[in-house]
Amino acid sequence: MIRGVIVMNDRGKPRLVKFYEFQPAEKQQELIRSIYRVLCSRAENVSNFVKVDSLFGQDVRLVYKTFATLYFVFIFDSSENELAMLDLMQVFVETLDKVFSNVCELDVVFNFNKVHTILEEFILGGQVLETNSSEVVKTVEEILKMERAANSIKVVPSIPGWQGR
Amino acid sequence: MEQLKTIGRELAMGSQGGFGQSKEFLDLIKSIGETRSKNEEDRIVLREIETLKTRLANPNTPKFKLKEYLIRLLYVEMLGHDASFGYIYAVKMTHDENLLFKRTGYLAVTLFLNEDHDLIILIVNTIQKDLRSDNYLVVCAALNAVCRLINEETIPAVLPQVVELLGHQKEAVRKKAVMALHRFYQRAPGSVSHLISNFRKRLSDSDPGVMGATLCPLFDLITTDVNAYKDLVISFVNILKQVAERRLPKSFDYRQMPAPFIQIKLLKILGLLGNGDKKASEHMYTIVGDIMKKFDSTSNIGNAVLYECICCISSIHPNPKLLEAAADAISKFLKSDSHNMKYLGIDALGRLTKISPEIAEQHQLAVIDCLEDPDDTLKRKTFELLYKMTKSSNVEVIVNRMIDYMININDNHYKTEIASRCIELAEQFAPSNQWFIQTMNKVFEHAGDLVNAKVAHNLMRLIAEGFGEDDDTADSQLRSSAVESYLHIIGEPKLPSAFLQVICWILGEYGTADGKYSASYISGRLCDVAEAHSTDDIVKAYAVTALGKIYSFEIAAGRKAEVLPECESLIEELLASHSTDLQQRAYEVQAIVGLDAHAVENIMPMDASCEDIEIDKSLSFLDGYIQQAIEKGAQPYVSESERSGMSNISNFKSQEQHESLMHSLRFEAYELPKSSMAPHVPPVLASSTELVPVPNPYNHTEVHYSATPMPSVSNAGSSELKLRLDGVQKKWGRPSYSSPVPSTSNNDAPKIQNGTTQRDSVGSANSKARDVSYDSRKPQVEISPEKQKLAASLFGGPSKSDRRQSSSSQKVPKNNSHSANKSHVEKTATSDTVAVKTSQPPQDLLDLGEPTGTSIPPSLDPFKQLEGLLDLTQDSTTLNTGGGSGTDAPDIMSLYADMSLSGQGNENPLSTGNDSASLLSGFSDAANRNGHGVNTVPQLTQQLSKGQNHKDSLEKDALVRQMGVTPSGQNPNLFKDLLG
């Protein structure tokens, strides 16, 4: 199963943290710091996989990828396939890009509740639920429409990205 | 999307306020982004927390503001600050009717709370309601929360609704309901065991997405119990076929591949189902072959499926054609420029070498390239592969590479792993003794503090016992070369403590054995070690005891032990050491130097470290002593079982039952104490599980004792002590029923050469007595097939498994104390190795392994008899060997015997506490002599209580003595891992 999804920037600030097994806040910070240290020490043009059994226990690996200023990190055990996870990460980012149209770090920071919504469509309880980017976009839009309808006060000024679709 | 904007651009955008959040939140993030130090950040966040606290608490805050505050709170917690004051607001927000707020509330609680949090109970009701909602998005939100927040206790509250949702019209809901059920299964398998059939049912769901979701729980279920799902093999193969033939709707295509994630899951499941099952595997060959032919190498996901095919092929019953295809695919991976592909190629190679070792050889160059690669992940993976393909022909190269790599890494976790792998490989495949010792030296030099202390003991044992060849000269050559190399290394600065211990021990045992080095030279070097590591008591203890050995060997050889001035001053210094252990050792050395050759020979026989030591667990050597005490009017010991009414525990079986019972938690209520229980109730024994030993009043037990025919006097004698030591009697009480054991084991036990009496080694080495008498037989039969399988599966080639077994057999003979067994092993070792396999008890090594922090001096009462005669300070391990006859002369002899034992076996630096305890107890014994008579037991129990339980600790102690050292207790499991 997938143990966690972390998005952090290139200076180690967490931007999105989701663990599928509960981790207390301090432990989360510690893990994020250790992962950041590991990622920093990686050279360019090397594989996207790192074994992290010293942090998470036997046979746990992580896949990371840098997108501009952000590290995307998936942590998972042997029941998942590294390459498939890498690809899923790609789809996740593509979806973010579609939803936010040209996603950047601040989109993730300010709308991390929406990012969570998108992530929930992909992964539920540590298992991959959906892999089709356009399906996810569809569902997320539907949720958003409902939310807007329910929230007639319109507190949230529309985001350019949302209006585009 | 690859061209995301830079921070500067983002901040510029941010300042325009285009993100739908308030200016405040924006400013917060900006200011945090601009902080230079952690302190500064903390200050800002703390201020933010204060603001949020007041605002959240304000009842007039509008809802949409509350929502934003909650999100800010989440942000604060993500940065690592405590936001627990706001959890309740998150819970409140889940109750909101508005979907936006509800979802925010659910998001917040799923991130804030763990499933055992007290507040969860406030959400369950809302979740129940939402699961029944007409709006499927609300249902989905609730299911998301269910996956994260429901624990074993609350599962029943939502289970019926979740099950109902399995039939929901929306496939998104069905999918999530399957996942929720899967989550329940993970969390508390028992709670949904009756619903597992639902997973099978959903496998034929009309929506492929739901079917795909069902594969997740099925994968877990099949992992735990393969055989229950063999009937699904054909269904899975059919599904995979349909997927691969693109029969699914177009929407399931993913980068032009038909539902690759479903394919991957299916291939994983098939791999499990086909493992070791020829018939099931045959169904799979065609489809797996088809997928491999069709694969698309341009995309990641295509390669992922291909890799999964290889994993599946390596797991199921081998098929030559598929293996060939897999080998082709692997070579494609390895030839790729992408590190990811190479990584998968190496991993796949590792899987396939188990089945066909020759494949790895085809890719030697590629593997070497990966080894040189700057990518650490790839390098490690390659080392893993090398580890898997090591055999006696390539062990030198591989281990040297591993050591070179190990020296250069800083990650202690991985360093430990690779060091232990080096050791393991070296132990298994060492081509020569010299090479082995050199390799171990290197590993110790660079990772000595990381490897398990057990490894050090193994090394000592190996050098002491040789490689099991009958050739004595080879053994002594080995020792000489070890001594040589250690004298060479010893001067180097910064050697790890564990390594120094080995060095000291070896120098003490064998430093002067071949006559090449003089005693004064060796003792001088030992002194240097002790002085150079004046802060390390353990090393000093080893050094001082080694000195003692050197001197006694000198004396025994008829020479005068010339104590160098520096040694003298070292001993002087240690005589006043704060560490009682060091003090005692120093006194011992001092005493030895003053003795004559005959006495010394008994104390410190040459090369006695390999002698087998027997343990009398019932301490029957105390019988005579107890007899005396009873004659003087002492109260007899009444065993625990008798006190609680179980008068007859004499057979092992019930004893074992009883013991296992004692270790687990009991959930039954305690029985009321039965003051008038009949003393003879042998049949009760059978149902001992139901009996809770309740100590009866002592006056009662006395009656008891006189009424029950208890064979062992020792039991009776020690009963006195329970008056003073109620707390410990449980630990102490049990061994007394085992009195028959030692007597039998004793009879066939080899005697120590120096023993003047027949019972030499009583307390300390008990494990052997037990192991041999019945314990060891069982594991030999049970575990060896496993070992066999491991050897076969790890190293398919016959030459390798040969080597593995023979090497293990080499090590076994001397550590197996049973003489009969020994000869048996030696015989078989020379004959066919397959036979050895079964007779080998590899777990002997394991048994030896559990290091203990304490050594348990079994008995102290020789003090009383001897303190007047000798003013030596006795070692804690002194054993009464006289069979308790009580006369002085035999006791002295036995004392010598004991000292020899303790001399060779008393390298246990950690026993300081015990030693001091025993010293004190020695004095108190003297003081108490007129008092209660028997007080050996209190000390014993004290010490026993330091181990986990007496049996374990005695067993450990036995091994300790056998190896002549005390494992110092680090990484106890490491070695276990190595041995599989």
TrEMBL record, chain A:
GO terms for cellular component: endomembrane system. PROSITE patterns: CLAT_ADAPTOR_S. Its main location: membrane. GO terms for biological process: intracellular protein transport. It is found in: Endomembrane system. Pfam families: Clat_adaptor_s. Keywords: Membrane, Protein transport, Transport. The keyword Transport applies. Residues 1-143 form the AP complex mu/sigma subunit domain. Belongs to the adaptor complexes small subunit family. PANTHER family: ADAPTOR COMPLEXES SMALL SUBUNIT FAMILY. This is AP complex subunit sigma. The lineage of its organism: Eukaryota, Viridiplantae, Streptophyta, Embryophyta, Tracheophyta.
UniProtKB/TrEMBL annotation, chain B:
The keyword Transport applies. GO terms for cellular component: AP-4 adaptor complex; endomembrane system. Its main location: membrane. It is found in: Endomembrane system. It comes from the Eukaryota. Subunit of novel type of clathrin- or non-clathrin-associated protein coat involved in targeting proteins from the trans-Golgi network (TGN) to the endosomal-lysosomal system. Adaptor protein complex 4 (AP-4) is a heterotetramer composed of two large adaptins, a medium adaptin and a small adaptin. Belongs to the adaptor complexes large subunit family. This is AP-4 complex subunit epsilon. It comes from Forsythia ovata.
